[in-house]
Specification:
Elements (H helix, E strand, L loop, with lengths): L7 E5 L6 H14 L3 E4 L4 H8 L5 E6 L8 H13 L4 E5 L2 H5 L3 H15 L3 E5 L7 H13 L4 E3 L11 H10 L5 E5 L5 H10 L3 E4 L2 H5 L7
Parallel strand pairs: 1-2, 1-8, 2-3, 3-4, 4-5, 5-6, 6-7, 7-8
Helix pairs in contact: 1-2, 3-5, 6-7
Length: 219
């Protein structure tokens, strides 16, 4: 296993996050050499300035947290974020389209965002807490078919985050080339390692420092 810090997207997506909070997040990411910071789009230029001499990547969210805005809005948001220096985009799937069985529209939307950002990494959040096992499988396959790089479990704003059972369901539904990001409720080393052992390539968490220190975050 690689060092656990290299799996972590050090995350701060609260609506109340201040400039000082994001500055602290970026400084922590440099200190602990996390893979990336995951922040709201407004703060991408700030993160780009703070992290420009480091190896830490910048991840931002698109269509967050509901995924229910127009495709054009998501495309613009993604293009804007990349233009300001984001390396990765975590996009929320339109669950209404999934529930309505408008699967081609759903795939087209994801593919359009991926085409917009090109070689930059696209993770698609399928918000598994609202889906049946069958829907998780369908959603995961659509994400892969659309050309995205990762299936991501959760926004962290739903009633439940990741679980090992959900990750196993996603893993069964996609090819070995496709990657998985688990997020939501990952607060200690044991939990983080369990996901990595299952095959997860990235962890979204605001508890990265506690995980590295072998403690359990109360956040």
């Amino acid at each position: 296993m690689k060092p656990i810090n290299s799996y972590i997207d050090h995350t701060l997506l609260k609506s109340t996050a201040s400039i000082d909070d994001v500055t602290t997040l970026c400084n922590e990411a440099k200190t602990y050499n996390f893979f990336s910071v995951c922040i709201n789009g407004y703060y991408v230029p700030l993160a780009e300035e703070l992290l420009k001499n480091s190896q830490v990547k910048i991840c931002t969210v698109v269509g967050f947290p509901l995924g229910a805005m127009s495709s054009r809005a998501k495309i613009f948001e993604a293009e804007d974020a990349i233009g300001y220096g984001a390396d990765e985009v975590d996009m929320v799937m339109n669950l209404g389209l999934l529930k309505s069985k408008k699967l081609k529209l759903l795939e087209t939307e994801i593919a359009s965002v991926k085409n917009t950002i090109g070689r930059k990494v696209l993770k698609v959040i399928i918000e598994t807490c609202y889906l049946t096992s069958e829907e998780i499988s369908i959603a995961s396959k659509i994400v892969e078919n659309a050309g995205a790089d990762y299936v991501k479990t959760s926004t962290g704003f739903g009633p439940k985050g990741a679980s090992l059972e959900v990750v196993s369901e996603i893993k069964k539904s996609i090819s070995s080339e496709m990657k998985i990001k688990a997020s939501g409720g990952i607060r200690d080393y044991i939990t983080a390692k369990a996901y990595i052992d299952l095959g997860v390539s990235r962890l979204g968490t605001s508890s990265g420092i506690a995980i590295l220190n072998g403690k359990k975050s109360l956040l």
